[in-house]
């Protein structure tokens, strides 16, 4: 089940980024030793009361201003609102209600999304009475907090998670969701049309979770799929191209979260950009099965070494997800489009792979015999046993004597050994290290 998406919105200088940092500051999924993943700090993973969710920070909304920067920031916030499951509307308890607050409140009412009103900077009793003034916004009961001091954040998150589904059920248990994501003008629309146009049965068009997205059911090879398209980021806006690309991250995020398989489309002529790497980073963090689609390959002048050289360059830029299968296609001419679904099915099957505990422990023992675990100041790491705890992606736990002795390089070695042994060449995997309890079996 996809993690809920929570957007933090409000006018400038009300403390949105401070709240964002407090909630996700120590839970950012990207780690320092993961090369190649660069991105803006607009998105982070968070946990509250055993609920996992994604939090999106936005620029300040200034409805009355029409300069380029304000328009761009407002558009970014609007996109976050469109894709969010729950919205946190943050206001300043010291300044009181402003005209901009009232206009943002009206925007949120039109969205018809669940909204939690947070009154920030209430860090002294003299500001407490001002909280009640915000009932006037007509958003609901305000929650007093101080993001800077960490006061009241728990109350705010209690309200947020109250809107999450308690026992979510898969609406399409037998349907595989495939998301098509990427920058504008890389050929996503052409790929979607190519996938739906050859030997497929289109059932109907269903409005997606955003104004521009369309979820399209289709059948391929006797199996049912749902194509989760991010159509909105293809349309030209009256803003700078660079800003459109930044919005594509927000738009792509919603599609990635709902997907079982993600097709990451890039332009062969442009190569891999920082924005492409950022989107790929989200896919990797979410643990999704994916295929890198290098489109417009027919426009590239080629010799016998061109494709291999291109693959080497892509692998270097995407070192953090060197497992991802690559396809070089032309959506317009149909070149290799027929292989897209084959690769998508293969990647998804690996993403769902489950191995027996006995076989897994045999492989772990073999890896330990080949390369001895590290030691530190006379203490040596001991790996007692391993088990697989989940799929999508395959997640394994190693139970050891002292987790702090597990050096990053040895953990990577174990991950690669497991990947190679089980042929997991097309999916991310997760390897967790836990200390064995006294009652745990050997």
Q: Can you describe what's shown?
A:
This protein has 442 residues and is α/β, with parallel strands linked by helices. The chain folds into three domains: 5-161, Rossmann fold, CATH 3.40.50; 176-350, P-loop containing nucleotide triphosphate hydrolases (Rossmann fold); 357-435, GMP Synthetase, Chain A, domain 3 (2-Layer Sandwich). It has helices at residues 16-24, 68-83, 99-111, 153-161, 188-197, 241-258, 274-285, 306-317, 340-351, 357-370, 408-421, and strands spanning 5-9, 43-48, 51-57, 86-92, 115-120, 143-144, 176-181, 201-202, 206-207, 214-220, 223-229, 261-267, 289-295, 326-328, 375-376, 379-380, 383-390, 395-400, 430-435. The strands form four sheets. Strands 7, 8, 9, 10, 11, 12, 13 and 14 form an eight-stranded mixed beta sheet that branches. β9 (206-207) and β10 (214-220) form a beta hairpin. α2 (68-83) runs parallel beside α6 and α10 (357-370) packs across α11 (408-421). It is globular. It starts with a strand and ends in a 7-residue tail after the last strand.
């Amino acid at each position: 089940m996809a993690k809920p998406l929570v957007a933090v919105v409000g006018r400038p200088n009300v403390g949105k980024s401070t709240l964002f940092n407090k909630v996700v500051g120590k839970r950012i999924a990207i780690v320092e030793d993961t090369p190649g993943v660069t991105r803006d700090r607009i998105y982070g993973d968070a946990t509250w009361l055993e609920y996992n969710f994604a939090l999106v920070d936005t620029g300040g909304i200034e409805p009355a201003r029409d300069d380029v920067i304000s328009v761009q920031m407002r558009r970014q916030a609007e996109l976050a609102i469109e894709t969010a499951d729950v919205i946190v509307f943050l206001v300043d308890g010291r300044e009181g209600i402003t005209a901009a607050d009232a206009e943002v409140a009206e925007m949120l009412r039109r969205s018809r999304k669940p909204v939690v009103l947070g009154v920030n900077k209430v860090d002294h009793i003299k500001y407490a009475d001002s909280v009640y003034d915000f009932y006037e916004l007509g958003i609901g009961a305000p929650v007093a907090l101080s993001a800077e001091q960490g006061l009241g954040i728990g109350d705010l998150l209690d309200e947020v998670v109250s809107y999450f589904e308690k026992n979510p059920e898969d609406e399409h248990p037998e349907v595989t969701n495939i998301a098509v994501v990427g920058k504008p003008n890389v050929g996503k629309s052409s790929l979607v049309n190519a996938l739906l146009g050859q030997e497929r049965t289109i059932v109907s068009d269903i409005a997606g979770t955003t104004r521009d997205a369309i979820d399209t059911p289709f059948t391929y090879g006797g199996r049912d799929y749902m194509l989760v398209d991010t159509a909105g980021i293809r349309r030209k806006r009256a803003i700078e191209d660079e800003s459109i690309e930044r919005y594509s991250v927000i738009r792509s995020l919603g599609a990635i979260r709902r997907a079982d398989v993600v097709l990451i489309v890039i332009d062969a002529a442009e190569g891999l950009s920082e924005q492409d790497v950022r989107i790929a980073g989200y896919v990797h963090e979410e643990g999704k099965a994916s295929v890198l689609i290098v489109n417009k390959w027919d426009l590239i002048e080629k010799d016998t070494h061109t494709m291999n050289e291109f693959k080497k360059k892509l692998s270097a830029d995407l070192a953090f997800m060197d497992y991802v299968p690559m396809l070089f296609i032309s959506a317009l001419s149909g070149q290799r489009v027929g292989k897209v679904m084959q690769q998508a099915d293969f990647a998804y099957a690996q993403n769902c792979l489950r191995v027996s505990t006995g076989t897994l422990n045999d492989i772990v023992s073999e890896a330990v015999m080949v390369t001895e675990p590290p030691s530190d100041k006379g203490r040596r790491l001991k790996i007692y046993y391993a088990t697989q705890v989940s799929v999508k992606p395959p997640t394994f736990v190693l139970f050891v004597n002292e987790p702090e002795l597990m050096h990053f390089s040895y953990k990577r070695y174990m991950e690669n050994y497991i990947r190679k042994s089980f042929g997991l060449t097309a999916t991310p995997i997760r390897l967790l290290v836990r200390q064995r309890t006294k009652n745990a079996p050997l």
